[in-house]
Amino acid sequence: MSSDESQRFGPESMSRSVLRGFDPARFETARTEKGLSRSDLARMAKIKTVETIRRWEKGLAAPQIDVLGRAITCLGVAPDSVILTEPAERYLSDWRHLTLQTQPELAASAGLSTNLVAQLELGLGTLTDDRAERLATALGITSEEVRSSYERVRARPAGTPA
User: Fold this and answer.
1) pTM of the model
2) How many domains are contained in the chain?
């Protein structure tokens, strides 16, 4: 399995690629209901190995959003059917994941730098009204939801992934 396709769960993986709310069982159910084997899905979604999908389904690894996006597109399911986060508890990165965007993609669509998006997702940097509006447009949410998500990530307990 390649490191660009998944990250291990646990404290050692506190990076921007941790995917909060990914539900392995729902993902596996979506695959089996579509009638696809792991091998078929890996081939169709251009995922390097079948092992990657097995590890996702067993909860041993979390997918990176671009790879998960290819998989759920093949499965014909919405992101929120396998990424479960309560709207009132979402961080900025959760909203990005639900739109299947990478940080560079969100940055480009919002007209911001990737570094700034990364900083804001960590609760760092300054969220101006202009930045909130740009992110809201790119994420398909309100600027108030952007501000609330930013404040939640700033207030999260130490050691909690953003």
Assistant:
1) 0.85
2) 2
